[in-house]
């Protein structure tokens, strides 16, 4: 039995934005008690926090734990064992930055999720989709123009190519067979893909609806990579539940997000990082040139969505050596969002997206004992979250990690 007692914790109630001082008793991975003067077993580890702020463990709803390089085509030629070793290192770094749960948006599989759950590797609790579904020439097709054979591009990468309703259904069913918590489709062009345009739409409506039907049949949902308002609207009309990125949305797309009660997962830090470090991390010159198309629009899209009342979850989408900038997303979002709303995006909103409301992203009895202890109040100084060095303790499932 694991037993941890945190004394004198200044706990943030993310729902109300209010702090309260008390003790937190964690037993067997869950929060067992919250109150004053709590007592634990003699074998318990006791930490006096001296009134330091305590938040729920953070949730990043858009990561790629296997993306150890920005050269996604080159990644496909790596040994799966080598990729797994890098993924273990990347996941440990995420945990040390305060992220106790992440949603992988393509690349990770049941092997990594099982290894983390069984304690074989140290990292965030992992929700995965397997490989993202892409049309030929879409964002998940990493072949340069001169490569014709499909098998040359689809080994150990982040995506798989499927064309036509029947093939898309089969691919969706295959990812669900392997345990995917959600499915992902590439519904527009992207930065890291070599042969498409950012402003393209991808997959027909029949193909998109087929993926949604398969996900819903398995009580799962679909996430869509989409930048433009047109691509976002098409995906939402097909029944997609979460929009990834959305840098080029307009007010009509915001209204559609609200009307369909969908989630938006902006990933602003990745464009900042790609602009500054993408070439050094393996991003091709052609892809690097695309970054400007979405970089400057990202903050405006976030502000538009926030003003429109969209449910916004926290995401980063970093690649290669740029994973270390994960917490910088807090600082970037603070340019247009209040700190409490950003914190909610990385706790309660992300938990709702994952279907884990009340179990993660909250400090409450019965929830997973995932907590972070900070050096400073993030409600008045967002750098308490934006700078990983100001995280004093990370606690996952009741263990100080």
UniProtKB/TrEMBL annotation:
Residues 54-401 form the Amidohydrolase-related domain. InterPro entries: Amidohydro-rel, Metal-dep_hydrolase_composite, Metal_Hydrolase, Metallo-dep_Hydrolase, OTAase-like. Pfam families: Amidohydro_1. SUPFAM superfamilies: Composite domain of metallo-dependent hydrolases, Metallo-dependent hydrolases. This is Imidazolonepropionase-like amidohydrolase. It comes from Kibdelosporangium banguiense.
